[in-house]
Amino acid sequence: NAYQVLGDERWKGAAAKTLQYLDATLYDVGASGWGGSQYADPEYYAQPVAERSEWNPPRVDPTIFCGPNALAARAHIAWWQATGNGISLAKAKLAIDMLLNRFRKDEGAYAHYLTKEGEEPAPVGLLSDGSEMMGACLDLYEAGQGALYLDRAEEIAVWIRGHLEDPRGGGLFDGPARPDAVGNMKYPAKDLTDNMQTADGLLRTFLATGEEEHARLAHRTLQAFLPALGQLGFFASSFALASERALLQPILVHVLGPLADPRTQTLLQAAQRPYRFERLVQPLDPTNADDRAHIENLGHPLPAEPIAYVCVATKCLEPTTDPAALTELVRTAQ
Q: Between vectors from CA 70 to CA 100 and to CA 17, what angle results, nearest 5°?
């Protein structure tokens, strides 16, 4: 994101090195996901870089965790947004599909990690996993990978509202109550960052679906943390971002065209090339009955070729079929 905003190649290089480490060291091709971590080995890391090749690198914990894998997938989507690298987008989709297929236990609830046969079941329904999965699914939806991902994001939002909201004190618990757990683990807590990321995802889901209950829950979540704002320190950054999403006029980019058409995909990537936090890109495929109805409700004519509309709240600019022009419209829209 820093590279998108500033154009400084140092930030692009830092992101590239991070992804290279993730994929070269932690990625499991057979599982289509990333292992949890590389083991600590103080003696290995104390060696000069030139001499490390003579040592066996620390082993990787192969445990695949839900939330961190969704976050790694989102990093690849961000790389695609900034650079247009389709390989990163494909890897992200592969990982999220794996999580949807293997971690989804209840409609909207996900296991925290994969377990082997005979092992104790992993916790299910943690807010941290739900918030990352919601964000990743929304990212894939905006990237034109299909309406299924919007459906899964909304499913998570509904589950969180029904199972994790504190109706008395406000805010969202970090997971369902666990009466059989040990000590304080019996009692759910409220993590600020996970609450704020969930609020952000809820607001994005509202913009994509028009379902106001998602926005109402997001606002209730933000309001629950207002009394503690003065003591949050740098943790207030997550509150600031979610609040920005709630307060700023959204920049809505409607990309009309068949998802299978390369011109549509080019417009979708062009719309996400500049960093605009308040932006939501909505692919609308006229060959899909639901999307066709949505296009008509928005008042856009059915397109003869892929075309994009940039709207600030309800005011739409002149549409364009040119990717470079679309990038500039998104960058300067206000």
A: 140
